[in-house]
Amino acid sequence: MAEQRKRRPRVCEYYQNEDQFAKGVALCSGCTLELNLRFVSRVLGKDIIFVGTPSCSAPVLHGQNTMAWHRHPYYACTMTGVASSATGLTRYYQKAGIEATVVCHTGDGCAMDVGFQTLSGAAERNEKIIYITYDNEGYMNTGIQQSSGTPFGAATSTTPLGRESRGKTTASKNMPMVMAMHDVPYVATATLSHLEDYAKKLVKAKAASKEGFAYIHVFCPCVPGWRIPTDASIQVCREAVRTNYFPLWEMERGVWRITQKVKEPKPVSELTRLVGKLRHLNDEELARLQAQVDHRFRVLQALCVASEGVPQSES
Amino acid sequence: MAAVLDRQRKVITGNGAAAYAAMLCRPDVIAAYPITPQSEVVEQLAKFHADGLLDCEYVTVEGENSAQNVVCAATMAGGRAFTATSSYGLVYMYDAMFNTAGYRAPVVMVNVNREPPGIHAVCSGQQDMISVRDTGWVQLVVENCQEILDTVIMAFRLAEDFDIQLPVIVNYDGYYLSFLAESVDIPAIAEVDRYLEVLKRQPPRPQLLPGQPIGCGSHGIGMGYVELRKKHMAAMERVKTKLEEIEGEFAEIFGRSYGGQIEEYRTEDADIVLVTSGSAVGTARAVVDAKREEGVKVGLVKLRLFRPFPKERLSAALRGRKAVGVLDRSICFGWDCGPLYMEVRALTPEMGILPLLSFIDGLANMDITKEHIAGMIDEIKAAAEGRPYQEVTWLP
Amino acid sequence: MKPDSGQILPTEACWSDASEELLCLHTGDWRTERPVFDDEKCNACGFCYIYCPIQCVGDAPDGIHYRADLEYCKGCGICARECPTGAITMVPEGDFADGCSTR
Known about the structure:
The complex is a heterotrimer. In chain A, 35% of the residues lie in helices and 14% in strands. Chain A is of the alpha/beta class. Chain A has a single domain, classed as Thiamin diphosphate (ThDP)-binding fold, Pyr/PP domains (Rossmann fold), CATH 3.40.50.970. In chain A, helix 1 crosses helix 7. The longest helix of chain A has 24 residues, at 283-306. Chain A is globular. In chain B, 57% of the residues are buried. In chain B, the strands form three sheets. In chain B, strands 3-2-4-5-7-6-13 form a seven-stranded mixed β-sheet, with helices on both faces. Chain B has two domains: 8-254, Thiamin diphosphate (ThDP)-binding fold, Pyr/PP domains (Rossmann fold), CATH 3.40.50.970; 262-394, 3-Layer(aba) Sandwich (Rossmann fold). The longest helix of chain B has 32 residues, at 223-254. Chain B is globular and about 70 Å long. In chain B, helix 7 links the parallel strand 6 and strand 7 (168-173). In chain C, 10% of the residues lie in helices and 18% in strands. Chain C has a domain at 32-95: Alpha-Beta Plaits (2-Layer Sandwich), CATH 3.30.70. In chain C, a hairpin with a 6-residue loop joins strand 3 (57-59) and strand 4. Classes of the chains: A alpha/beta, B alpha/beta, C mainly beta. At the A-C interface, helix 1 and helix 9 of A face strand 1, helix 1 and helix 2 of C.
């Protein structure tokens, strides 16, 4: 074949450095969380301080005795203490005049359940931190238990299929929306199939965190937990966006916009058929999930329309 | 910039004394959540902050668990941090307290003793401090408002000492001390600066900073974990002598001291001794004096350092006595007596077998009166004289 | 930071220091199949480079195309799946004489 000019995808312009993680880390084959960690490391840069907690990321983010798996400074704490620990760090750095970017990096279980109160408190106080939630819709590291991020109908180890059960009976919390309602400078959704969109949002979040609280909710499929093949995880991200199951949007100081417009959203069944934990949904259950997806998207659209042309808020 | 405060004598409450002390130590970060009977501490600190007397990051957290995590992280980043709580709040920060102690974070906290949840009570009691005795924190218990102020200042000196690096709780009785207004000698901020200056000349602790590949909170694996536990215990043991040392330094600058780990009152020739802690000590002093007038050779030991338990000094103080009573303002679940009593009982190999009596009094803000204490002394005397006595007595 | 002799940690609490070495697993041992790159079909778009969760896809020797670092490649197959020209095929490890890592 004739010689071709090497061109890197546009997202590479956002990379500040090589990722700071060891080449071989204990995350599953095909894990989107691994891509997430390395991506955040490359885009936000090597000086960020990670705040992490027991979760799928802990075996990689936190060290073992004196050794570590990466070169970022980090602070490990209990699930109940992530946003509050980040608060302690960022407040001291401000007092001492130390320039720092504190990045909380937790799963949905921490952000949406057991660590939610402290996250909400930190957002209300507009603490100068970035909080990234990688949403794999459950407690994966401990064995695929359900969380408030698990969608309606999903089969997990604590909402298993059985004679009396068809999986989780309640819908997940609309967490990014909840965080946006805290009136903080920046909230966004992102996923690993749309890396350039995610990179732009990380850059905006970093800038916003110099003024106040920034939150990014990242859709992160889990290979063993969702029962998907190792090579399908990026495709599942893409389908989540294309079906409006996980729309990509941002809210900047009270102004909402959808950052990845989907012209003709596919039915949610295009996503569920790829994902083992949802493949058992019958027509009625699918219809219920579809209704929920549609409703949430309509609310999002309404917010976008309502804030069109509205000047950004001062807070 | 904090205004320079001169030395003054003021009538202030126990809570006010705690707030003054914290302010004088120039903390970088304060995070606290209000709870009766502590609220005045955080309110007074907020006022100092609002008036520009306290140059710190004042974080109005949404719960005590967050408060503890904020102050722990702030010290790991290199700062000085302070928080205050009581009972329900103390137990709400339970998981975070393990974190702080395990990280060897030099947080200083006042705990205004109040009964914990289970039987709703907005009342004084020491059960809260008992319930956290295994978290790995240093715990002190004080008797009056002056001692609150002095001990909080000493707590920063102790916590941040390079040989110690442990979080410290200063406990004082809710209601009896928190809202009691007494005349308190408030030092000049320059004197406090001088007292704490030595810390700046010590080697630096590890610090979490951007741009350094240092991580805080690594997993403890195998012998690494065991080693850190041993180091923690060794540091706890060092607290005993360090407390005496820093109290000596305190006395040199401020002219006051409290005996270090324990204070012995009229024990030189005492046949019988009552051991207690907190505000009850003040009452007990008066009763001991009255009993001495009657010819009873009774002494009082004030337990000031609760964690680590002052094994050596206490067993030396109690050895050879004819009988000893221990007054607890709490109960020891799993046993049928008071918790401090149980810990004194564990000193038997060092102090010898002698009659030991447990008195449980002062739960839920029921006053520990002079009459109660006189009755306790009579019971201890009965034991010393070989007459029948009750091993465990609940009062009133 | 160096611990006293006989000690594992130089600190009183659990601090790690990555200024010298990093922990690293030889994850190349994990895989059961490996990506094979067909430079004829490749249009050098770089999707394999950006989507590899391990970020182990780097430049091929010609500086135009791409190769996976087989010391660490876990064989997930994302590169093959995301490749728009079908230039990457996942082939069972057993088909290769070099076998899995000897480390």
